[in-house]
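W.,

You were right to be curious about this one. When I first looked at the sequence I had no strong expectations either way, so I just let the prediction run and decided to look at it fresh. Below is the sequence, 435 residues in total, followed by the output.
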Amino acid sequence: MIERYTLPEMGSIFSDEHKYQLWRQIEVLVLAAHAAAGTVPASSVGPVRAAAPPTPQAVAALEAVTGHDVIAFLSAWADNTTPREAAAYVHFGMTSSDLLDTALALQLAGATDLLVAKSTALVGALRAHALAHKGTLRAGRTHGIHAEPDVWGHRVADFAFAMARCRDRLVRARAAVAVGKLSGPVGTYSNIDPAIEARVMAELGLRPADVATQVVFRDGIAEWVSVLAITATACEAIALEVRHGQRTEVAELAEPFGTGQKGSSAMPHKRNPVIAERISGLARIVRAQVTPVLEGMPLWHERDISHSSAERVALPDAAITTDYLLAQTTRLVAGLVVDAARMRANLEQTRGLIYSSAVLLDLVAGGMSREDAYALVQAAAMDCWDSGTPFVQALREHAAQRGQRLDEARLDEACRPERYVARLGPVFERLERLT
């Protein structure tokens, strides 16, 4: 991922420096476990542990010759080991994927910890915003058209619970990827004792794979990247709501707009929903990583490397972008400007049409057949749409023409927006308990 969208903490997890630190940590633990088991000389552990890890530049120079990153790393590290002969026992009984898959598991687990923390912060921001607006009336919309009265806090509560579920999926996905292996070339433990694997994985905080070939099967990683895609898309859903609400014709919501910020090089009046649009665009990048990672599950026999090159791009990009999206969405929600007066004005924009469903049910409850009630309400609604006559006035006129009487008190109650949201109390009670 480009630097523009890479936050430092997540970026460091996927840096070459950190990767080589993990490789060194794993190799030292394996060497120490071998020494404790009497497989290799105990005298080899100290010099190897004391040797400085190779720089990415040193590894790159050797890889340009060897064409193999792990061999280049081991050779560069051996160059830093005194006496150099001690390094002969590094990587003893292992295959490259023992190192690569175990280090990748540590990277993905660490990345997930950051994502869980950021998603929890976003849940908190959404929860606070929703509770602050549990009484802010607005028009609920379906198909982009006014439907029934709602409150803004209800819409945001939906996002809060959705993001909490994403956070919980991330926790489960962490368990799916925190799996390593130290079982040799095709996973048969031919040159390494399973006890070595068990000891090292426990020290790393990973679970040994139940079974592995040369690699750990990729279903856990596919699950992980799919969860990131779901999380990114939940962020996009929030952003899309803001983008609609900031349209000039709607003008109910506005992104934070900082001092000195500019909206357009040509039009000084512009305040564009750039944060929300950026979130919508980058969510596509995360979703785009799902297919390449899924296609890493079917491999030739015990292993090929068709998964490897795709994962080098897809996994860091998915993690880094999701991390950035969560931070940006939290910023968006925390600074969101809500125009409650505009929401109420828009609620009345259709001159009462938004109350048609409650009026229909009230007429039926008052003894009118559903067919007659629907015909009356629809005729009044069409008149309101076409001529601009207020809905209640049109309803009275059409009822008079049909010789039907309306209960004015019940009609007033049916057209009171607060009655539509009176039963939302339990939703907000559940939201208050959300953590």
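Here's what jumped out at me. The mean pLDDT is 94. And, maybe more interesting for your project: The domain at 96-346 is CATH 1.20.200.10 (Fumarase C; Chain A, domain 2).

Coffee later to discuss?

I.
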